[in-house]
Design a protein that fits this description.
The chain has 6 helices and 13 strands. The chain has helices spanning about 10-15, 60-70, 105-110, 135-145, 190-205, 210-215, and strands spanning about 20-25, 25-35, 45-50, 55-60, 80-85, 85-90, 95-100, 120, 125-130, 160-165, 165-175, 180-185, 205-210.
C-alpha cells in the first residue's frame, strides 16, 4: 500500500516559484526555485525544511518517556540536542519538539508511545524554515523580537519569540557553513512568514533557495 502524500503548509506560496519539485519524506518540496542563485547563500538565504517529520510531547512524564526510547533530552529549558540525527528541543519546562533528520524515523517512535500518566502528545503542523548566510543576523534584527546573535549554537540555544508578528521557535545550529538558524511556526502562518522573510532577504541581497542548494549547508 502506498504512503499518503503529506501536504506542506507552504505549498500555496511555493507553487508560483517552483522550477522543479522533489518528494522528500512523502511531502512535495521545492528542489529548485525560479530565480534562485547560489550567491543567495553568500548574503542571506531562506530555505524550507517543512517536509521533515515532527512529533511533540509534554507533561511531567515526557522526559522519562523519551528516555525510554533512548532519547536524551536537554538539561535546560529553551535548548536542544541531537539524538541519532534527530533534533530534540525542550520548549519551556516540560514540552518537547522532536524533529527527524531527512529520512529518519524517530518522530514515528514518539507518536507510537503508549498512553501514560503525565505524558501528553502535542500534534505538530509546523512550517519549518532555515535562515542561512552571513547577513542572517541582520535579517533577524529587522524582523525578530530577540537578538539571535546571543544564541549559542554550540550549546544548543533556542528562543521562543516572534517574527513579524508570528510566534516562532528559533534555534541556532552549527553547520559546516557556520551558524544557521532554524525557525518553526504554526503552519497556518507559514506562508506569510515565508513571503515576508524572502522580501527582507532580497533587500539584503539574498533570497529564497530550494532544497538542492540548501542541501549544501548540510543541516
Amino acid at each position: 500500500m502506498s504512503t499518503p502524500l503529506r501536504i506542506s503548509p507552504l505549498s500555496d506560496v511555493l507553487t508560483a516559484r517552483v522550477a522543479r519539485w522533489a518528494k522528500l519524506d512523502d511531502m512535495p518540496c521545492a528542489a529548485v526555485l525560479d530565480g534562485e542563485r547560489p550567491a543567495h547563500l553568500d548574503a542571506v538565504a531562506i530555505g524550507d525544511l517543512t517536509h521533515r517529520r515532527r512529533a511533540g510531547l509534554k507533561g511531567p512524564g515526557a522526559a522519562a518517556a523519551l528516555a525510554g526510547l533512548g532519547l536524551a533530552t536537554p538539561a535546560r529549558p529553551n535548548s536542544w540536542c541531537r539524538n541519532d540525527g534527530a533534533l530534540v528541543a525542550r520548549l519551556g519546562l516540560t514540552e518537547y519538539l522532536i524533529e527527524d533528520a531527512a529520512g529518519g524515523a524517530v518522530a514515528a517512535r514518539v507518536v507510537a508511545l503508549p498512553d501514560a500518566p503525565d505524558v501528553y502528545p502535542v500534534p505538530r503542523f509546523d512550517a519549518a524554515l532555515v535562515v542561512a548566510g552571513p547577513q542572517a543576523v541582520d535579517l533577524f534584527r529587522q524582523t525578530c523580537a530577540v537578538d539571535v546573535a546571543g544564541l549559542d549554537a554550540v550549546g544548543g540555544a533556542l528562543a521562543l519569540t516572534s517574527m513579524v508578528g508570528v510566534g516562532v521557535t528559533v534555534a541556532a545550529v552549527m553547520s559546516p557553513a557556520g551558524v544557521v538558524y532554524r525557525v518553526w511556526c504554526d503552519g497556518t502562518y507559514g506562508g506569510y512568514l515565508w513571503e515576508t522573510l524572502c522580501e527582507v532577504a532580497q533587500d539584503l541581497g539574498g533570497g529564497p533557495v530550494g532544497h538542492d542548494l540548501l542541501a549544501g549547508v548540510r543541516l
